[in-house]
C-alpha cells in the first residue's frame, strides 16, 4: 500500500480550523483515495513554554496537531494523492496555519525552517556548526549550516 503522510499544522483550538473543516471534509469525502485528517491532542511537557528556549521542539503553545494521510493502491495514483494533500495544505496555509510538526515531513512545505523549528532554527544551526561542521548529516530539509 502506498501513502503520503504530512503535518496538517498546529492549532490553538477548534476555532483555528472551524471555518475550513466543512470544505476540507467535503474534499476528503469526494476524494477517490482514502484520505484522513487526524487531529491529535497535546499536553504535559509538550505544552511547557519554558522548554521552548532549550529544546528543539518549538511549538509548545499549541494544544492540537493535525496529520494528513492519503492511502492508495497503485504507484500510478501518486500524483493524485499528492494533489489531494497539496490542495488541503493550501487551504490550511491560506487560513494562517503555518507551524508544522517536523516528524510528519512534507517536501513541498514552503518556509519549512520556520514551519518546523520556529524561533529555534538559528540555535539549531549553531549546534549543527558545532557538531556537524562538514554537513555529513543532510537531506533536503535538514538544518543548514
What does this 3D model show about the protein?
By secondary structure, the chain is α+β, with helices and mostly antiparallel strands. 30% of the residues lie in helices and 19% in strands. It has helices spanning 21-30, 78-94, 112-117, 121-131, and strands at 2-11, 34-41, 64-72. Strands 1-3-2 form a three-stranded antiparallel beta sheet, with helices on one face. The termini are far apart. 21% of the residues are buried.
Give the gist of this structure.
This protein is α+β, with helices and mostly antiparallel strands and 145 residues long. Helix content is 30%, strand content 19%.
Strand content: 15-25%
Q: Which of globular, elongated, flat, extended, rod-shaped describes the shape? A: globular
Arithmetic mean of pLDDT: 93
Please summarize the sheet with the most strands: 3 strands, antiparallel
Secondary structure: number of strands: 3
Figure out the total of helices: 4
The SSE order reads: EHEEHHH
The residue fraction in helices comes out at 25-40%
**What is the straight-line distance between the termini?**
36 Å
Class by SSE composition: alpha+beta
Strand order of the largest sheet: 1-3-2
What Rg do the Cα atoms give? 17 Å
Spans of at least 5 consecutive residues with low confidence: none
